[in-house]
Design goal:
The chain has about 180 residues and is α+β, with helices and mostly antiparallel strands. The chain is about 30% helix and about 35% strand. The strands form two sheets. Strands 2, 3, 4, 5, 6 and 7 form a six-stranded antiparallel sheet that branches. Helix 1 crosses helix 2.
């Protein structure tokens, strides 16, 4: 699955286990947010986030925020990089562009990989690879999808620019199977 050409999604999982993993990540997010709100805090802390927590969080906690149906998801963390191999059902007439709709509507395996780094409160994500059903996706289609799916909710998104890390996060280091967040 790491090649981005296979079927997407993790092996069948229990909804209860996914809910627990999602809650674990939510607890970590809440801890980071609480530390950011504490104006008297002077110590640096670290937290680790696993692939399973990220998968579960997307499938459980973010379900209502994703405009397509996520059938399955597998997150892969390797030093400096994050990849997601998913199976998504995209509704017809979802982008308003006939050509793009013809290419993306239906159920597809979607693979996305990029380099991620974060230090001194700033992050940078460099998109490296996007495949739909094992076929590389041209930048024109990626730009259209970002315009129609991401920009309406996050108008400041620009994959070419660094961004401020949220909640007082100072550093994110992606390793094998986990990300370490320093805040």
């Amino acid at each position: 699955m790491g090649s981005g050409s296979g079927t997407a999604g993790a092996p069948p999982f229990s909804i209860q286990a996914a809910a627990l993993s999602s809650a674990s990540l939510q607890s970590k997010i809440d801890k980071i947010k609480k530390a950011d709100a504490d104006k008297n805090r002077h110590q640096t802390e670290r937290v680790e986030v696993t692939e399973k927590e990220l998968e579960s969080y997307v499938l459980v906690s973010m379900k209502k925020d994703i405009p397509v149906k996520v059938e399955g998801l597998r997150v892969m963390l390797t030093p400096g990089a994050i990849a997601a191999d998913s199976r998504l059902t995209i509704p017809p007439d979802s982008t308003g562009n006939y050509i793009v709709d013809a290419l993306v509507s239906g159920t597809h395996s979607i693979y996305v990989k990029g380099n991620m780094r974060g230090s001194k409160g700033m992050g940078k994500f460099d998109l490296r690879d996007v495949k739909v059903d094992g076929i590389p996706v041209p930048n024109l289609i990626i730009d259209t999808l970002i315009k129609h799916y991401v920009k309406p909710k996050y108008p400041d998104v620009d994959l070419k620019q660094p961004f401020e890390l949220p909640w007082g996060i100072d550093e994110i280091v992606i390793g094998t199977g986990k990300a370490t967040i320093t805040y």
